Amino acid sequence: MATTATNALSLSSSSTVIAAKDTHRQPASASPQCVSLPTLPPPPVQSQSRVSRTTAYCRKIARNVVAMATTGEAPAAAAAAPAVTPTSADEAPSEVDTTELLKTIQDAWDKVDDKYAVSSLAVAGVVALWGSAGMISAIDRLPLIPGVFELVGIGYTGWFAYKNLLYTPDREALLQKIKDTYKDIIGSS
């Protein structure tokens, strides 16, 4: 009698058949509405100490840079340690003299006659850089355009290499053109 009721139930609607099959396959505790996710392990403690060590090291470097820029002398801890460790025995450590660089920049700024124009150009350059970065990111979000630009870039790179780098006379002409442009910008000394 029970089989007749099940057959009659399965013939009446297709959803009842699915429900009847699901009750036979799934245990009573499992429900299609509730899904439990496994818990995540706690984050490692080492990363927190690494972050604090990195932050402390960066603050130490910043203090040393500020001290060197204001007084012109390196702090005792920074002066004792070499700036760059050599990778091989025949390499000497290269040290950049920050005070000399700052003095050169300051002398160049003192030679400028129209400081207002130079400052305006610097601000305009920063604004143009910021605007172009925003425009590039907006174009990059479009679906088809980045792929097309990538293909154009690959094609132009191939054409440039074929036209200017493949044969020796073309390479020499390109190098001469670069040198002439450099002399026009910098000036002949």
TrEMBL record:
Residues 20-51 are annotated as: Disordered. It is a multi-pass membrane protein. GO terms for cellular component: chloroplast thylakoid membrane. Pfam families: CAAD (PF14159). It is found in: Membrane. Residues 26-36 have a biased composition (Polar residues). InterPro entries: CAAD_dom, CURT1. Residues 103-187 form the Cyanobacterial aminoacyl-tRNA synthetase CAAD domain. This is Protein CURVATURE THYLAKOID 1B, chloroplastic. It comes from Spinacia oleracea. The lineage of its organism: Eukaryota, Viridiplantae, Streptophyta, Embryophyta, Tracheophyta.
